[in-house]
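User: Could you go from structure to sequence for me? I need the amino acid at each position, not a summary. Structure tokens:
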């Protein structure tokens, strides 16, 4: 029986190497499912906004609901000033959402279960929000690391702690998504193995657990996309409004 972790193996589809530079630029199964995720999210939005009917159909209603959901998230957590960055936030939400949901399709590859993918996304959020902070406030953005009302004698201790906490944001943001997606899919694979090993007579119990886990994983896929996006909005709020 295959290992539960085999589903996370990255396999090249088109080998592309640069021997002189020691680079491997191969198009992998992870790259393929990222492209599929982008195509699905783009296709959904384009198909849902094509007719723009006054009385929306199901597809248009779904797209409008998603749009308003993310817009409301930005307004509530980053303020109205954060709406200028809405396209970035919406794109991030849709990419992660489809990455999570496509991973539930049998035989698919869950690219959000890889730390290199989630860390790259989190690092982009970290660098982007930091750039926004310096763009809007200049050097005054550094006052973000000075806790308001703190005694001056404590600042040499508190400021490094604040800087360290700030720099850990991309790590905590990436690990949360990566761990949840990897753990859930590993559990599903284990129970599938149990069901196959026990056969038709006794396999109904792990199979019923699989159905429950599948529903749970669907909720987790939605929730993790929401958590990643809402934390991005909160980081953006810090960059725009400081303390």
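Assistant: Here is the amino acid at each position, in order:
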């Amino acid at each position: 029986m295959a290992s539960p972790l085999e589903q996370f193996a990255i396999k090249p589809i088109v080998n592309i190497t640069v021997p002189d530079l020691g680079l491997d630029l191969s198009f992998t199964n992870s790259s393929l499912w990222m492209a599929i995720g982008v195509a699905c999210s783009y296709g959904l939005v384009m198909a849902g906004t094509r007719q723009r009917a006054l009385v929306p159909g199901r597809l248009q209603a779904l797209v409008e609901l998603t749009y308003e959901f993310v817009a409301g998230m930005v307004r509530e957590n980053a303020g109205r000033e954060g709406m200028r960055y809405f396209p970035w936030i919406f794109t991030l939400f849709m990419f992660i959402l489809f990455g999570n949901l496509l991973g539930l399709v049998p035989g698919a590859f869950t690219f959000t279960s890889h730390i290199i993918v989630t860390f790259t996304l989190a690092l982009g959020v970290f660098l982007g929000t930091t750039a926004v902070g310096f763009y809007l406030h200049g050097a005054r953005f550094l006052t973000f690391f000075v806790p308001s009302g703190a005694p001056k004698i404590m600042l040499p201790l508190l400021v490094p702690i604040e800087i360290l906490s700030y720099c850990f944001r991309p790590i905590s943001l990436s690990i949360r998504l990566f761990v949840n997606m990897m753990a859930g899919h590993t559990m599903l694979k284990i129970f599938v193995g149990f069901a196959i090993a026990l056969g038709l007579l006794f396999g109904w119990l792990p199979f019923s657990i699989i159905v429950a886990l599948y529903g749970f994983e669907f909720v987790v896929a939605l929730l993790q996309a929401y958590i990643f996006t809402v934390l991005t909005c909160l980081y953006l709020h810090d960059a725009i409004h400081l303390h």
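One structural detail worth keeping in mind: The radius of gyration is 22 Å.
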